[in-house]
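#onboarding

Welcome to the new folks! Below is a worked example of what a typical request in this channel looks like: someone posts a single protein sequence, and someone else replies with the predicted structure as tokens. Don't worry about understanding the tokens yet, we'll cover that in week two.

Example request:
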Amino acid sequence: MQRATDRAGVTVPTVHLNGTGRDALSRQYRDAAEAIQAAIIAHADAAPHGRDYYPQGGDAYRQASREHGERDARLRAVLAEVDAMWEHIEGLCR
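Example response:
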């Protein structure tokens, strides 16, 4: 059997009689997407501030900001994949 992928290349589940039902899969991916969105918001609230880094001198704040941005990008990439899976399942439900 061939692996099923969406347009973004994410491997998506196959809904069938012996597997998890469409409604349950849709709910699981929706819940995961909402949790990741909440994590993105919480992470944004924890953005670096210069006052917390200047005692380290040099480039500490810029490095912390760069790292924060990289973490944000990874969270958003995971959200995009989960959204793609959710959209796949939702498309099957129509």
